[in-house]
Structure formats: C-alpha cells, structure tokens
Amino acid sequence: MGPADHSSWNAVRVASWAITACGVAYLMGPQFISQFRPPENRFLDFSQEWLSAKNYWSGVPVYADQTEALLRHTGVSPDKLEEILPRNAHPPAAVVVTLPSAALGYGAAHLVWNLLTLPLFLLSVGLIVRDLKIPVQLWSLLPAIVLLLLCGPLYYHLLLGQFNFPVLFLMTVAWVADRRERPGWAGAALGAAACLKLYPLFVFVYFLFAGRRLALITGAMAFLIGNGIALMILGVHEFETYIRDVLPSLSHYQSSSRNVSLNGLWVRLFDPHPGEGIVPLMPSPVLGQALTLTSRFLIVAIVARASWLARSVESRDRAFAAAIVGMILVAPFSWTHYFTLLPLPLGLVWTRIPSGWQRWLFGAILVIIWIPENLFVSLMEPLLAVGSSDRTDEPFPPLFSLICFPIPTYALLVLFVLVLRTPSHIAQVGGPADNNSAPERDPA
C-alpha cells in the first residue's frame, strides 16, 4: 500500500481494476448522478443560499426566517420539512457569491452549483497529486473512479450542495503558493476561502507561527475586501443580523450526533441539547466546556509548534496539512462532508508514511472516512441498545456518545497524529526526490 503500488500495471492488474470500475459504475453510477439534483420539493443546505438570493432580489432581508421565505417563494408548506433551518447559517460573502442562483428554480440552481463546483474538487486533487509527485498513469483512473463513486462524504456534499469544494480549491492554491515561496498569494487565497466559510481562519495559525508575515497581511486584506464587497451589496444590517442572531442560534447543533468535532464529543458526553435525545455520561456543562477548551488549546499548540519548527518544504507541508485536520477538530461543529477537505492530509500520509503498522492504521482511517455517515451507529445500535428494540422514542445511552458517534472524530485524531509523524524529508521513506528547502523564516 503506497505510491510504489502504482509504479507498474500488468495485464492482470489492469483487467481486475477495469472489471471493478465497471461493476462499481454500474451499481453506483446512477445513484452518484442522482445526488447532483435534489428530489422534488426537498430543500437541502443549498436552499439557504437560494432563499437568501430570492429574498435579496425581492427586497427582503437575506437572513429573514427561511420557513416564511420558502412559503413566499415556492408555496411549499414549511411544516412538512425537516431539513430547513430557521435562518441561513452561512456568512454574508457566501450569500453574495450565490445571488445569481435566484434566476433558477431551486432544483436547477442546486444542480448548476454542483456542476460548477465539483470540477474545483477534482482540480484540487490534481494539484495535490502533482505537487506531492504521486505516480500516476492512465490506468490510475480506474481506482480513482472506484474511490470517487464509493466516497460517502462526496455523496453527502453533492446531496446538500455545500461550499467545501471552492473552499478546498482556495486552500489548495494557498498550499501550492506557499511551497513555491509565494506567501502573498497563499495568504490571499486562504483569506478568500475564509470569506465563504469561517473555519479556514484556523489555518492562519500555520502562517503565524511559520513566520509567513506577508501571508498574514494579504490574508487579512483578502478577508476584509471580500467581506467589504458583501457589506456594500447587502448592507450593514445583514452583517449585524448574522453576528447577533444567526451565529448564536446555531449553538444547539453542537451536540448533534453528526458533529465530528472535538466540541461535539465533549458536549454530547456532558451537556447535550435536550432535542438531540442523548443521555449525558455526567451532566456537567462546566466540565464539557473545560474539556473542549483544553482539547482546542492542545491542537492549536501542536499545530503552532509544527509550524514554528518547519524549515523545509516537506516540513511545511506537514504543518499545513496538520492545520487542515486541526481546523475540522477545533470547529464548534463539523460534519462528515467536511472530509472532502482532507485530500492534502490523506495524500501526504499515503506518500510519506513508511510501511508497517502506521500504514495499516492509515488504511483503517480511510475506511472510516470513506463510508457513509452513521454507519457505525447503525451497526452497533443492536449491541448497545437498552430497553425496547424500538429506539424511535428512546434517548441514546452514553455509550453511543463514547463509542459510536465519535468514531469519525477518533479517526481524525489518528490522522492528525499520522500527519505529524510524516518525515520532514521525503528521502527518509524512499519517496520521490524533492530537494527544495525553504528558508527558516519568510523575510517578508
């Protein structure tokens, strides 16, 4: 298992992968294509942007109540929907980017968004493969097709119509620019990503402690310019509403069983929201908050140390990739579709971790990341259930919050460790040569 596995393709191997790819395409292809457009009268995450765009062109506040907006613009009764949020949870700049979607019906707008952004995901993977010098041949497309069609987070992302593809592309551009000693462009790309979603702001920890001062300056400028444009288009009131009303209203989602961040782990164990139907291990909001802050501090400290000690291209790769995994871990809430942001950490570990137990552990992580969300809960529920076999009205016992729900979180923690264990020089593991080294600190 490793990059050397793709160095030779004999007839048997090509035939095996060709048959596998055809079988997976036959079985999963139609389902994969169906994710691009939501079912009729089902309004998923992208409906937030679409309804905000509709509101904007109608002269209604973009962060107005979404159930009222849905009834106003579609005639669909909000009480029949479960997916719709009370307000758009995304930043104002994300609303501005998607204002043209109002010209289409929701299903068509969702479809166009996926068609426009999926190539950004593929391009990001291509840039990572190129810069990590992962050996690729024509036949490598066969396993790539299989992995693409079996990727649970990718399905989920397309179904929801989320923002992670453009965010991933901008963060990948930031990484590529940084390793080519163009910190100004790196910071600008990361600042633009943070306009669409706030969580990429965490990656600036890398620039700060790696001494990339120009990246910090251009990143701040890009973030301010992006939000300044949104401010001119939407107005001050929308920013005030987002900060004052929208962000606080999202707090109860932190204890969701689908939240894969460290915050979700501790909140579920010690202070779950009553609406989530989760029994705490021990009711203690103070302890839950303390453990959240402690774990966040440790992740920040580890990323900061890795960034501070980075002296070569390879060690900077490691610190940047660790910042991406850390970003998902320290967020107030992270979902499994955020795993589409992990191509760089996964590629880095795959190419640089030596053979042995670490590579087998990495294989297990890949399985956990790739499978559909909540699969472990479904598999383990009969073993951990207490009382009636019908769990529709029963709360989940603490074992679910300790064993089942956080399995993706545990996988992220292991991936975080493996990224940090990658060598600072590729030659140590016999990988492709890359003798470029960075100066100790960016003079800018």
Defining key terms:
single chain, 444 residues, mainly alpha, 20 helices, 0% strand, globular, disordered C terminus
Structural description of this entry:
This protein is mainly α and 444 residues long. The protein is built from 20 helices and no strands. Helix 5 packs parallel to helix 8 (164-179) and helix 15 runs antiparallel to helix 20.
Describe how the helices and strands are arranged:
Layout lengths: L10 H24 L11 H13 L7 H9 L17 H6 L8 H26 L9 H9 L2 H9 L3 H16 L3 H14 L7 H6 L3 H22 L1 H14 L12 H9 L14 H24 L4 H18 L12 H10 L4 H14 L4 H10 L13 H7 L2 H15 L23
Give the number of helices.
20
Inertia-based shape:
globular
Query: Which class do the helix and strand fractions yield?
Result: mainly alpha
- What is the tally of beta strands? 0
**Low-confidence stretches at least 5 residues in length (pLDDT < 50)?**
386-391, 427-444
Sheet of most strands:
none
The radius of gyration computed from the alpha-carbon positions, rounded to a whole number of angstroms, is 22 Å
Share of helix, binned: 55-70%
Order of helices and strands: HHHHHHHHHHHHHHHHHHHH
Q: In percent terms, what proportion of residues is strand?
A: under 5%
Measured between the Cα atoms of the first and last residue, the distance is 41 Å
Mean pLDDT: 88
Short recap of the structure:
The protein is an all-alpha fold. The two termini are 41 Å apart. The protein has helices at 11-34, 46-58, 66-74, 92-97, 106-131, 141-149, 152-160, 164-179, 183-196, 204-209, 213-234, 236-249, 262-270, 285-308, 313-330, 343-352, 357-370, 375-384, 398-404, 407-421.
